[in-house]
Design brief:
Largest sheet: 6 strands, mixed
Protein name: TRAP-type mannitol/chloroaromatic compound transport system, substrate-binding protein
Binding site for Na(+): 211
Binding site for substrate: 152, 173, 210, 235
Helix content: 40-55%
CATH class of the largest domain: Alpha Beta
Oligomer: single chain
Number of domains: 2
Radius of gyration: 21 Å
Number of helices: 13
Strand order of the largest sheet: 7-6-8-5-9-11
Distance between the termini: 34 Å
Order of helices and strands: HEHEHHEHHEEEHEHEHEEHHEHH
CATH superfamily of the largest domain: Bacterial extracellular solute-binding protein, family 7
Organism: Candidatus Electrothrix marina
CATH topology of the largest domain: D-Maltodextrin-Binding Protein, domain 2
Shape: globular
Strand content: 5-15%
GO molecular function, one term: metal ion binding
Amino acid sequence: MKFILKIALAAVLLITATGHPALAAKTVRWKLAETWPSTLTPLASPPAQVARMVEEMSGGKFTIRVEGKEKHKAPLAVLDMVKGGQYQMGHSGSYYWKGKDINTIFFTTVPFGMTTAEQYAWFYYGDGMKYMQQVYDRFKVLSYPGGNTGVQMGGWFKKEINSLDDLKGLKMRIPGLAGEVFAKLGVNVTNIPAGELYTSLDRGTIDALEWVGPGMDIRMGFHKAAPYYYTGWHEPASEMQFLINKRAYEKLPPEYQAMLQAAMKAASGDMYYENFAESVQAWDKMKTEYPDIKVKTFPLPVLKAMKKATDEVLENYAVENPLFKEILASQRAFMKKARQWTVISDYNYIKTTLDLER
């Protein structure tokens, strides 16, 4: 991937050096606000990569200064800051804005929804991008895919979950639609910024939390405070997002717009690969370096209750919100077709190879 990006950058630089309009374009200085600390890779990787690429492609005339939450101190206000023009760009997760518009959840992920490949296909070759921009038009910002985590783990719990009764009264950090699902099952749900997660779990402010997957979770140290690590159901393809102030984007020269578009698409794909690689290594280390971690899957009755609650939450919103109903129908229709191919291709290939190893 990095080799391909270097070739692309070299080609663009060669063109600009031989008379491309970018040489004459004005100097542009932008700022980008992240929901995460700037050191929290791979979540923080796409903005840094985009800034690096546009600077190289423009010969240093288009630069983006990336500021993490440690700088602006407002991790869950990124949309407002981009909308208001304090920052020309932001990097966050669309489902953080569900309180402003419930339709934003579709552009991160929904419980029991599409895989990463299925969701990217919906974005770029289905109706995903169309609906995403329709939703964000009201905020006068543009929204683009900003990197995917793949299937996220179901979270870290201080006690084992054997039945629905074990969820009742549990204090848990879990955002998005999954938070509403857990709330229906008796969980006391909260959302806490990344920098406060470990302290909240360690001090007992919360009893459980979900973050991402082993690659990021082990670095956060959650296993020291909660030994039970559950497999995922709630975020099968969590997409981050780039937000862009629409007025600022429209003022960019066309060549800068093209550079930004290309950089965002490349960086979003690269984050998925980076996170996957980190999780592969962390999962392998867990077996020897972290033997006290107890990997669990939620019992089938609990999963069935989660699925039922998810369907109820989705249907309730669909009744109240025509656009929600339309986007939900689009995702379900695409997923129904895509899942047939996912099963016959990836699922059957993996199942076959595992059978051969037995």
